Records
---
Amino acid sequence: MKFSLATATLLLPTTLASFERIAGYQPISQITDHNAIDLDQKSMETYLALGTEEGFQCAQNIYEQGGDSKVYAVITLSSPLVADLSKGDPIFFVDGTAISTNAYSGASAGDTVIEIKYATSDDQDTYVGCRAGALPEWDQLTSGCFGVSEIITVNGVSYTSNTYDVANDNKAGRTIQGFSTSADLEQLTTSQDCPGCPYKEFKKFYDYYGSSTYADEYVTAALDGTATSFSRGLGDADFSKYGFDGRKEGAKRGSVYLNVYMYVLREFEDAIDDCMDDEYDQNHGAAHAWDEGVAFYTGSLEGTNGAGSGKLLHALADKRCANYKTCGNDGDEVEGISKINYLLGNQFIIGQNALLTYNCGAVRPIVDRIADLMSVPMIQGTLRYAYKVDVQGGVEKEKAEGAVFMAAVIPRVHDCNPADAAIIYENMKIGAASTDHKKVKKAFERNYDCMGVNGALVGGLFNRATNAYYVGTEPKQESSFTCGSSNELAIGLGSDAAAVALVLALCVIIICGVFYILMRSGRSSLPLYGQIHPIEVK
């Protein structure tokens, strides 16, 4: 049985009321801890900016070990456990104040080392009391870490630890590197835990690079100043040709555009795997996975309304729209929220609604659309730096930026046309003999239809000084995006009858019209992912 739209509309506000928004999106579960992964990225970038081997090593430590997300303590007990400990079992600490938490992982009777998870809250600003791991001392938060010599009560038995050290024994269970190194189990190999594997978008990248850990290999090569060696001889990047400037771009951008990018899509795929056609409690897992995908796309630094200064993919889309005149609700501005983020906001809401109303079959095309939209800033970035290198004399920094943007999208081109992918790669790779922006642009444009990309969304490289597009960078002329189609918004609403479908279509038209008038008049105050936005015609 599926809820009607009317029922869903009545239920959703009360279901979603207790958690902070993420750039306007209203999660149904606690994801403050997931949202904080961008703090790791921020710390990485701080160290990379030093441009020293020491700085790069510190950045690599954060990349590999984390510090801000899924924090837990590793404690060596003074005496062995008297009984088995299961993951999630309650653990109680007393050190002036009492702390109730649970086991991060299981342990057997006789073991002396246990892992204990820190509790997280619904408040993003104070989501956890302990952040350490590989973070620099100035960025650590230790006031809420377990204290030394605390009494630890496990299954009713009291223990102590004589060796626990706050600085060294607090770890992070979620890392940006782990988004890639876990891919074989979580995105590629079919199993009971991953029945939908290999995931659709990931398969394109695996088929191109020949490695499930391509993202980690790329970022690690940038951090180490070495070359990748992908098994299929496609997409390799030789960072030994670059100094700190080029390596910095490969590492700081690759960690987001490769690692985080694909893990966002992994969470949406996981939601499809978890989705059930009945029983809300079971489907809560699917909706939680969907929330995680939005959190990893956006990050905590964007704030509740999307107006912050983030480090992840939401921030990237807003930066590129300023270059390509695709900002704003109509996609024709050079500042503000990107059209891509407006459209993704629609998809996030539609997908969540489909999951909460048990309309599992509707989620597949939504995830496909999200993948198409997420690729647009990668195309924009590749084209921008192709132009900078070809026409404006860009050097190592610009060449490296173009190379990493290309790495994040070229498997999609290759899936459509290997010959065009080769053209793009040869022009944008590290160490390219030359870069021809025109060839790169044409190679992309020949594959827009296949990749599900509208040229109007990509836009053209815009010169604010002359109020015109740079010569040769004009947008590919295609159907523009308007409010005339209700097809995307109708996906996932779960109507079973033609009459209901008609009502939905009429509602969409009315809602689009009302919001269009409000936003054009500047009177709309709803946050980004909470609005209904015009939808482009493909």
---
Amino acid sequence: ESAPRDVVAFLGIMELVAGPYLVVATGSELIGYIDGDKPVYRMTRSDVIPFVKSFSHLTPLQASDNAKFVEMLKSMVSIPELYFSANYDLTHTMQRLQGTGPQFLNAPLITRADSRFVWNHNLLKSLESKTEALKFVMPIMCGFVFISQCTINGTTFKYTLVSRRSNRRTGARLYSRGGDTSGNVSNYVETEQIVEAPGHLCSYVITRGSIPLLWNQLPDLAMKPKATLSTDDNGAHMVTLASHMTDELAHYNRRVTIVNLINRTGSEGALEKNFNRYLQANEANLKKHGEVFYEFFDFHHECKNMQWHHLTKLIARLDRERQLCGYFQCSRSGRYDGGLEQRGVFRVNCIDCLDRTNVVKSLLCRETLQDQLRALRILGPSEKIESFENFMEIFKDAWIGNADSISIQYAGTGALKTDFTRTGRRSRRGAFNDFLNSSRRWLRNNFMDGFRQDAHYLFHGLYKPQNYKVTPYTSPFEQGKPGLRSVVPPVFAIIGFAMTVVCSLMPSEEFPMIYVLFWAVFTAANLAYIINNGSDFVDKPKLLKPKVD
């Protein structure tokens, strides 16, 4: 019998080869209080508990596979940024919550949560018909939460930043791109900035998500693999874009402004042209559901040679639309103040929806925050938020933390370009740190992300393990083992390099220069083969083959 253990939250149940496993959170830390006195916690420890007491019923192959699935499951509930609250619905924005009635607010959290942002949604499926059991299950949100008390001009208020990662079309950076015909896109995140001031609540929502077309960018050892648009069979691109934009319009008051930050040239340029083209082709259809506006800004071109002050041109161009969208504000009693609702949303993207995207989102949120603090009379009519250094440090910490968390979850490393968020300008030291993070991304995306993508497939229910009772048993891992073609060239390249070094260091009378040249050419030939066939040498998912749609 196992020893008793403390449990702070039940996440649900998952079926693996050996049978069902109970997934629980066993540790947490308090992040802060939201909407007054409602505590928000971050998971710090988790456990995966088998229902069975022994594994003697498994064959060696089944036991090996089951152990790999358990490792994947543990990796998905060990993500550092998983949050929960027993008193506040983290999956909904303030505006959505304030616009609901008593019946909704009195329902169990798990039944009224926004299904898009419940990270453990798949673990709850076996409990859907068990109403009593659902009372003990906690909706978990993946993303980022920052809560801090602030003071400006003698007024104390609470500044909160919440980012909600969608559980649809999740995965590792280069294995999860674009959208699908159901309207889901990769790396979709809803970010909400909240101000709790004496007597009032304010919030502002902004989203990000991959370009809603069918495209991929599979790893192939290149630092930046080519983005490839799929063949448009039966209007699939139109359906994908229309489905996604219709959902955005429905969720955000029938007004969406797309801010596209990708490059104008290369494979990114081809994506930009097609994104714009399909938007124009869908214009008449989308008008039935609301208004969509498109703003293109070639971030890298405009800000090259450290000219990051050019971002002010973009923010100025977007200011009218930002003012039209407005923000949400209500009294602490929940009563709307003069109809202050957010009437639209900015949807920001670059190729990854990480670094460039986070910079622009933070600038737009800073402008809106300044408007909110002026409206609440915390700032004077002509005062600027940048004048208050102590608060700006808090603001920058929040957005740098947000950038790093979302980047780690998707790309495996911290964010790039955070020096601009910190200082308002680009630095050579920041550029060097970006080089280091880009190198780490390259290593992880090429040699570690196959496992990470499989973990997403398993956790979100896209792949269901075969139960040990089903015969004949087929292991998904046996089919994905590397062949000689992906093993021999690297081995030959290492041998060739070693022999080149040895021959060059030995006396020339024993190893003439022709030996050095032979082994150098031998090494170069193997390296050239590896580079030209890079996709054969990366870590690939084994549970499912990556698909464009």
---
Amino acid sequence: LITGNPSNNSRVSPSKQFTLNLIHSSQLSHVELYSCSVHLACKRYTSSSVGPPESYSDQLAAGNRVRRHPADMEAMRAVLCVLFPLLLVILAGEVHARKLYKKFPQDASVPVSLPEKPNIIMIYGDDVGYGDLNTYGHPTSSTPNLDRMADEGMKITQFYSAAPVCSPSRASLMTGRLFPRTGVYSRNNTKFPTGSATFTSSSNAGMLLTEITLPQYLKQYGYVSGMVGKWHLGVKSEYLPISRGFDSYFGCPLTPIGCNSTAYNGTEHMGYCMLLHNHSIVEQPTDIRNVDVRYAQNAKDFITANANRPFFFYFSSHHTHMPQFASDTYLNSTERGLFGDSLAELDYSVGQILDHVTASGLANRTLVIFSADNGPALISKELGGEQGPLKCGKGTTYEGGVREPAIFWWPGVIRPRRISHAIASTLDIFPTAVALAGGKMPPDRAMDGYDLTPLLTEKIHSGPRYSNLYYSGHVLMAVRLHQFKAHFHTMGSHCLPSYPDKDCHNDASLQHHDPPLLFNVNQDPKERYPLDVKLHKEPLEKIHELVVQHNKTMTFGPAQVDQGNNPINFPCCSPACSPRPHCCKCSTN
């Protein structure tokens, strides 16, 4: 057994031989090998004695093989039937880990030498919930590339979007600032009294033009930037990506439902969605179900063209926002239905990018990040996504509305298979990118993020962020400090009355709480059991101090969503035609 070459009179079952192959292929130490072999060999002992067995010392003195009593054998078999499968799992995991270390070697005890001006790729999902990915626990999602990304990198279990809906969360990602500072909210929204709002396909305004975006800021450090996909921060020319710092842009800047696409359940209606190349519309209408292959190819072309200079690339997917869609390749391809098909196609794009970065020899100097803009749209039921162990979803400031999957992949820098429970946020992407570029943060404005580089390189294991502010529109709804989260206000959103938790429903109106509802979200992530505030005065006092300090520095930009809408703003390839959008048709270029 130890040598892996059993003698002719010792039969070894295929399962044992497989385990022996694992042991030898993983190059375990002799002590480990001996220990494993003993476990495997014990099951082969039999008793041929009749009557009371000889003493062990007598057997050994006679040079005989030690025989076990039948009662001992039954006990041993009962133990081994548990230990043997467990041993297989442990050995298989050990072998896999060793393969990863061989592929991406790193000794955590040795300081990591970061490459100068590494490339940064941000992959952003749309309405992807915390519990949607296979690597975050969903039993039927098909996300092998995201699973591989987590297996070869680090996933964070307490990563927050800065907002519970699309436009404001993207504003914070691009600026590193709380979205009310950027003007992406409303003060005249009767549907959402907090002012939570998004831009439409005909908005008169977009994110404030005084805001500095990440691609714009990275230019001074020699970076070139590209983007594909959803923008959602304004449709007029001055608000589009190419005017906000990106050197190239290809995609539909809107959510498909925003341009009347009903690619729902694979139906044929394309609506009036358009594809832009930089400022120009090159196709309208476009079949949104077939854009992923084109987006992935654009990303690969950009990476190839800029392989010898530092770059930032933003891959902003339309998946998995409703109406979900999938190409013929992925339609009906998963056990999870149309949502699963949509998610699988997003996963395809992730794989295309990771494979191309690796094949281009750029893996060791490229940080790839995956996350999403907000939680699942529970109003769509099984087509809306899954929040996992969290409460509520999109539109709310409960954990399910803003806590997102987040995976960081950087071979040679981030140790494989890491899981971090540190608090982090999309607000931290901007300062992290600037620090990696060797730059300093803008000195003329308040910034709300932290550099995550020490967390990625394991110089620290918690922090640098210990708090999170939960804004909905212009209202500070809740504050988290360490494990404690205080809700000063609550409100439901994007959820039908049929959902079991009434706090999530659309008709769960804005409620003020004094004293606030207090939860330990480390122990109670579903926020079901409010703590007795009389017994938790110290964390509440510290949270109140944090709010007072925040309010001293908080300034709100003018509410841009309140600038209204005009049909003339709808991106149209025939500017002189009417009525829009019905007349907006042009041939493929």
---
Amino acid sequence: MSQNLERDAKELCRLLNLINTPASKQQLPSIDFESQSLSKSLQWPAPQPKSGAYQHQSTEALALEQFSTKYQTERSFGDHAQQKYFRDIFAALTKQRLCNHQWTEHAPSENILRVLVCLRIMMRDVNYMKIFFDLNGVRLLAEHLQKATDSYLTYGDGPFVVDILKEMTNIFQKLSAKVEQREWLIACGTHKALILLLSATDVIVLHCSLYALISLSQSPDPRRAIGELNSVEVLLRILQDYDIMSKKLSAILLKNLLSDPQVKEMVKVYDGVPILLSLLHNDNIKLLWSVLWCLVQLASDPETSNDIRQMGGIPLLLSMLHERKFVSERSSVSNGLASATIHGRTPHSTIDEEDIFASLLLKDSTRDSQSITKGKTEEMKEQQLSLKSACCAALTELVLNDTNAQQITQNNGIFFIGQLILPQDGTEKDQKTFDTLQKNAFRALRFLFSMERNRQLFKRLFPADLFEVFIDIGHYVRDLNTYKPVVEKINSLSKEKVDEIEENLIAANQNREPTKFVADYAVMETLGSGAFGCVYKVKKAAAQSFLALKEIYLINPSFGRSKKERDKSVGEMISELTIIKEQMKHPNVVRYHKTFVEDEKLFILMELIEGAPIREHFNSLKEKKGKILRGTNLEYIHPDGFGIEIFTQREAHCTQRPHTQ
């Protein structure tokens, strides 16, 4: 053991001596300004002569490569037996190499790469990050990143340039993992170069830049600084045209940025909503999760919420709750993320995924095939539950628009969301994720309940004790923890009561088997009945939209006592309805589609109007403390005392007050 320590100490001492050799005493390559244009001299790292070897440079590069290979799995350099050498080597690499202008301007690109690799490996120890800050390494590294970025985007991929960019972005991703360091990184302008690198042609440079920006964007001020630059347009282009991994990372970054109101506006300006909705057709569960949370934040804007409905977003969201199948691959990072070999590429076996993922997406370890399969299954289940939670959150935001709420109900949303509140068996970890899903589902249902025309339906769904807890939450409460009591209540119910709720949900399923058929129309529900007949909610076979079918009993003295009198009355009614059908065509008038007689009954097929009465809209608006837009000044007083006063040309305020003559 002592011999090994002594040998390691000699190697580290030799490396330290190489690094501490002053740049003025090194045989650094010179740049022939006469043979190169001024623009070419702006390249960084500087172009190297095609011939002529520099022994010291090669020796140093080889020694640094050996160091990075030997210590690539080390995590705690401060507790190592050679900690003094490690600290001195790290300080020398920072001061004598990275912060040495003469060296960085003339050193071969391979040597610069080796220095960066070693710095990255040693900064796994958080104490070395602090040393790096204290030695002004962050500011100098940010300047070098900007130079390397400008050179790469102007002149393309020179020797080791892509690998240098990967290492730099990886180091900044490490540094930005600590909250207190992010604002200093922004002050050094790190984010500007990273955003420019979103246009990189090398996919790994793009991914590394996205990872660094994702880490930076987890704090408010850095997030705002990133959003102020031209990041939104580039991210939307990546989401539209790039590979799946690039899309996933871009969606995560956009999700973080959308907490800034300015970014929300930019997404609207660049038509981001249709791009995000188009991604809902994708089957990658991780991409979908981030896209959904983007939509959750965007849907808080009334105009965007309306756009999502008009672009067909609601049926897409509901389909994710019941009929979609998803995939979840374990992301693999291409070779080259942590370069450390003489050829400037890292073999797959030496990739350090922690360097890149760093608690952002995936954490994996070496396991046997059986445990990997089990782990993937558990991970997939957890991701599916989280995806449905995000979907419920998006629907909750959309429900604040009454027209959206109506469409969610019409598209069987209450049944689909209701299925998610039913208790399930699982592990403790699964139960925690499922509890979150139940809270999200109950919140979406509670928002839907707040639309008055849905309230009778919910009374039929829940037993009295659960309904009482459900009601006590209040209207339009966003705080997810508020729904904990109702989740605990349903999970404590007996199996018989849970089965009863499930049966009630099945009865509310609009896609259930019809109760009967009238001609070609499936009768789904009886909407009302009286002395003259009934009104049914129906749909034609294979159709998705519902219609109203009015059934009138012809065996009634009102239509005549004899068959001849009844036929005459029916003929007159059909003639009137035909005139209405042909001449009364207006968006605000109920459409008549057809009439027919069957089994001594007259049937009138007409448009189904499922919107709430105007008073219910005003009640809903009052509960949401919202406003109605109007074009003229007026005051409306309902006979029951429900009043609306419009104080300005643009805003109507809902009030409840005594009726005055």
